[in-house]
Amino acid sequence: MADRLILVDDLDEESIKGVERIDFMWRGTEYEVDLNPEHLAEYDEALAPLLKVARVKQGAGRKGRKATKPKSETAAETKKVRDWAKANGHEVPDRGPVPAAVREAYARAQAEPGPSVPPQGAQGDAAEPATQNPYAGR
After folding, report:
1. How many other CB atoms sit within 10 Å of the CB of residue 119?
2. CA separation for the pair 68, 129 (Å, rounded)
């Protein structure tokens, strides 16, 4: 014989007819509550103004997949940090992530008054000619 699950409304702790289990998340914590039709209507009414303006989270409902982290910096910004680090005696790889200590030093330097990132060619280096776009004019 199969077991039967009888849901009891969590608010009045009496109703069993038409009770539904509702799952929801609030500030990163998942919850569930059992509500009778009357309390469910109140729940729907309370959420209606928020649902009108809310966005459906992309990827909602997919489990087991990690969302890719959006890039927080552009390649130009990363180059700026690398150039500053090299000009200021920090060891930084030409590729891959810039070490956190270097990023922190760069952020501190940006907070200080005065120019912290020298303009290109300001160190007496001859500016390299821009690479021509092979697809330009096609």
Report:
1. 8
2. 36
Q: Which residue has the tokens 């489990």?
A: 63
Give exposure, 97-107, as e/b (b: 16+ Cβ within 10 Å).
Answer: ebeeebbebbe
Instruction: Provide the Cα torsion 85, 86, 90, 94; round to 10°.
Output: 90
Kindly write down the DSSP assignment for every residue of 78-107, as one continuous string: HHHHHHHHHHTT----SSSPPPHHHHHHHH
Mean pLDDT of 37-54: 90
Question: Which residues are within 8 A (CB) of 99 and not within 5 positions of it... i.e. 6 or more apart?
Answer: 92
Which pLDDT does position 133 carry in this prediction?
A: 58
Percentage of the chain surpassing pLDDT 70? Answer: 70
First-residue to last-residue Cα distance in the chain: 75
The long-range contacts involving 12-19, CB below 8 angstroms and separated by at least 24 positions, are 12/36, 12/39, 15/39
CA distance 113 to 12: 63
Model pLDDT for residues 77-135, shown as the tens digit of each residue: 888 989 999 999 988 888 888 888 888 888 888 887 655 555 454 454 444 555 565 55
